């Protein structure tokens, strides 16, 4: 079976532990599939760089419980091992009131054991109370073992082992404090893989940690995906990289729309625009689209004869000067959007389509200019799941339609649309009268800060491609 890597809270080192395990397994085994709980984009980039396979997000808020189970089963086909990296603390859910969409929820949903990572840097005997609490809190969760992270000395480790011995919880990993393993970060989390010059050396060090710090004799049986494993019964309950993304063998999603073969979609993909769920790209391809990846940073022209544009999120604020200096790309995008080419833009993509982008240093840079607003970077972080309710009929949605998405940015617009696409509510809010508004529609452009996983709303890419088919 697969194994879930969970933390007792955020910041305990579960990403480092996950990458160490993946690096070792990828180096010495045939194939390993990784998954990430939640809406994260950057951790999956590291997974993919290590394994050579696209990491898959498991998020029942953005999709559904049934989709999570189906996605997990589908991408286990033909692999030797599977790992799921959790999100936040083991029991931390989307609302904070329960554990829906938490790592524990995913472990229960997929019937998988948990490897719990504990930050021991300021602990000795108290480690037993933490481990006992997590072991006892929800008897439906099987804690298969512990990883003791940030151990200071042999004496420190002995104190921890003595304290944990009565619990009979296997210690499956021991990681000392690591001064030479640090993944750099910035205002939205880790720096993406394409910007780290020493990444191969970092992965080598992680593989060495994976080799030396874990009890593989007892870990491997937990990680093995048996070929005869009985498929999970799908639940009916529903709530609610730089470098071209390699095309893998895909499997059919439960889409009801007929395929529309041969539609050419230009996907912005470089260091400025790299936030894409692989499932979204797969869905477009399964509906018949041909994807052509291009760089708004480096390419002076769009791919030829495209019928639609797709701009994901990313870090346009970091590369604003370079984007602004590529005036040929800006002009090409502007001309096509004003001609009516169907365009889908999320977060960083929306920022690129504004008139000006003011970066953290206060410098302003000209962008595409099809949206009559400017974007300014701020210190304030906007983060969380959102209910987005369509306020009017648009090319992609009917008035009143609700989609569940995720916001994650440190920018704001200077002018809001007169007729916004969405009324925005919190994940569980019932009070629509207090909701904000958001999102732009210009010609055939859909631009919003809201990130969507199309596994939860496959009607949107299907409708997008129908519009693209009509563009000439």
SSE arrangement:
Blueprint: E1 3-7, H1 14-28, E2 32-37, H2 42-51, E3 56-58, H3 65-75, E4 81-89, H4 103-110, E5 114-119, H5 126-137, E6 143-151, H6 154-164, E7 171-176, E8 185-186, E9 189-190, H7 199-212, H8 216-223, E10 264-268, E11 273-275, H9 278-286, E12 290-294, E13 308-311, E14 313-314, H10 320-325, H11 327-339, E15 343-346, H12 348-352, E16 356-358, E17 364-366, E18 374-390, E19 402-413, E20 422-426, E21 436-438, E22 440-442, E23 445-448, H13 459-470
Q: What would you say this structure looks like, in words?
A:
The chain is of the alpha/beta class and 472 residues long. The chain contains 13 helices and 23 strands. It has two domains: 3-223, Rossmann fold; 264-470, 3-Layer(aba) Sandwich (Rossmann fold). Helix content is 28%, strand content 26%. Helix 1 packs parallel to helix 2 (42-51) and helix 1 crosses helix 7.
* Spatial order of strands in the largest sheet: 3-2-4-1-5-6-7
Tell me about the largest β-sheet.
7 strands, parallel
- Count of separate structural domains: 2
- What is the level 1 CATH name of the largest domain? Alpha Beta
Instruction: Write down how many β-strands occur, each being a DSSP E stretch of 2 or more residues.
Output: 23
Average pLDDT figure: 90
**N→C terminal distance:** 49 Å
CATH superfamily of the largest domain: P-loop containing nucleotide triphosphate hydrolases
- Share of residues in strands: 25-35%
Percent helix, as a range, is 25-40%
CATH domain topology of the largest domain? Rossmann fold
- Unreliable runs: 227-252
* Rounded Rg: 23 Å
> Please, how many helices?
13
CATH architecture assignment of the largest domain: 3-Layer(aba) Sandwich
Structural class: alpha/beta
């Amino acid at each position: 079976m697969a194994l879930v890597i969970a933390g007792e809270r955020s910041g305990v080192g579960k990403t480092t532990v996950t990458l160490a395990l993946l690096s070792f397994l990828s180096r010495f085994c045939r194939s390993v599939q990784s998954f990430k709980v939640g809406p994260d984009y950057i951790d999956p980039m590291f997974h993919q760089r290590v394994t050579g396979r696209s990491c898959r997000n498991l998020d029942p808020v953005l999709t559904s419980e049934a989709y999570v189970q189906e996605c997990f089963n589908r991408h286990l086909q033909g692999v030797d091992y599977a790992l799921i990296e959790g999100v936040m603390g083991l029991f931390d859910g989307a609302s904070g009131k329960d554990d829906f969409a938490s790592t524990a929820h995913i472990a229960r949903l997929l019937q998988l054991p948990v490897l719990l990572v504990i930050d021991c840097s300021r602990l000795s005997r108290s480690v037993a109370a933490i481990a006992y609490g997590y072991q006892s809190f929800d008897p439906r969760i099987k804690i298969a073992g512990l990883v003791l992270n940030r151990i200071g000395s042999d004496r420190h480790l002995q104190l921890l082992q003595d304290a944990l011995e009565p619990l009979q919880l296997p210690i499956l990993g021991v990681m000392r404090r690591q001064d030479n393993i640090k993944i750099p970060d910035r205002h939205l989390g880790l720096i993406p893989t394409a910007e780290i010059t020493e990444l191969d050396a970092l992965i080598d060090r992680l593989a060495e940690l994976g080799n030396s710090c874990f009890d593989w004799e007892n870990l491997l049986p937990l990680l093995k995906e048996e070929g005869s494993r009985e498929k999970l019964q799908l639940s009916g309950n529903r709530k609610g990289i730089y470098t071209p993304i390699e095309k893998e063998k895909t499997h059919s999603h439960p889409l009801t729309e007929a395929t529309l073969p041969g539609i050419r979609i230009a996907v912005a993909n470089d260091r400025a625009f790299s936030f894409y769920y692989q499932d979204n790209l797969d869905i477009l391809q399964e509906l018949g689209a041909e994807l052509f990846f291009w760089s708004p940073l480096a390419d002076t022209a769009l791919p030829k004869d495209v019928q639609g544009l797709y701009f994901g999120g990313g870090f346009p604020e970091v590369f604003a000067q370079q984007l602004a200096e590529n005036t040929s790309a800006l002009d090409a995008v502007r001309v096509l959007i004003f001609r009516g080419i169907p365009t889908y833009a999320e977060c960083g993509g929306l920022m690129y389509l504004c008139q000006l982008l003011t970066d953290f240093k206060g410098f302003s840079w000209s962008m595409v200019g099809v949206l009559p607003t400017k974007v300014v970077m701020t210190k304030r972080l906007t983060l969380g799941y959102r209910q987005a309710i369509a306020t009017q009929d648009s090319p992609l949605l009917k008035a009143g339609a609700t989609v569940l998405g995720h916001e994650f940015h440190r920018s704001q617009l200077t002018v809001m649309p007169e007729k916004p696409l969405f009324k925005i509510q919190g994940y569980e809010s019932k009070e629509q009268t207090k909701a904000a508004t958001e999102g732009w529609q210009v010609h055939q452009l859909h631009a919003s800060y809201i990130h969507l996983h199309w596994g939860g709303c496959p009607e949107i890419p299907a409708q997008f491609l129908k519009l693209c088919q009509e563009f000439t």
